[in-house]
Amino acid sequence: MTSQYRYLMFQLDNRTYALPLESVQRVLRVVDIVPVPDSPPVMEGVINLHGDIVPVFNLRRWFKLPETPIRLNDRLILVQTGETMAAFLVDTVLDILEPPLIEVMRAQKVQIQSKILQGVLEHHGEAVYLCNLEAIPSLDVPEVPPDDLAVLMGDGRDNI
């Protein structure tokens, strides 16, 4: 029997996290990220995705993990929450997790001191932290200054 709960697992700093699969649009290789002045500290910048400006959030900052330079093998997880599209910068994308309902219910009962996490599952003897997209601080993007927007849009080609 297939689980009604499906998650995309990813790693940050050798810890495994998971996002609800229904919110994930696609996974991309990391591309040039244009910084945005006066953006929230968790925002790495923006990317051009087929002519749309998409904010990129550094999940290491949300989870207060040590900063690392962006590497070529890092990934961007593109998520849709309501009307908002955003990309999350992560170290590695692992696999799809389909836990039984009872495990998800147990995971949600675990008391965690973070609004961003909704629970912890055990998968192959490892903890998997379930992310709560609705509790993640605003995914709103500050206005991109016209000069930065021109650089980002370049000659009209995507940077993806």
Quick overview:
This protein has 160 residues and is mainly β. The chain is 13% helix and 41% strand.
Main beta sheet: 5 strands, mixed
Structural class: mainly beta
CATH topology: OB fold (Dihydrolipoamide Acetyltransferase, E2P)
The fraction of residues in strands falls at 35-45%
CATH class: Mainly Beta
Taking all Cα atoms into account, the compactness measure Rg is: 16 Å
Helix content: 10-25%
* Broad shape: elongated
Query: Which residue ranges are poorly predicted, with pLDDT under 50 across at least 5 consecutive positions?
Result: none
Q: Could you give me the name of the CATH homologous superfamily? A: CheA-289, Domain 4
Tell how many strands the DSSP assignment holds: 10
Tally of helical runs:
3
Straight-line distance between termini: 37 Å
Give the count of structural domains: 1
Question: What descriptors fit this protein?
Answer:
160 residues, mainly beta, OB fold (Dihydrolipoamide Acetyltransferase, E2P), five-stranded mixed β-sheet, 3 helices, 10 strands, 41% strand, elongated
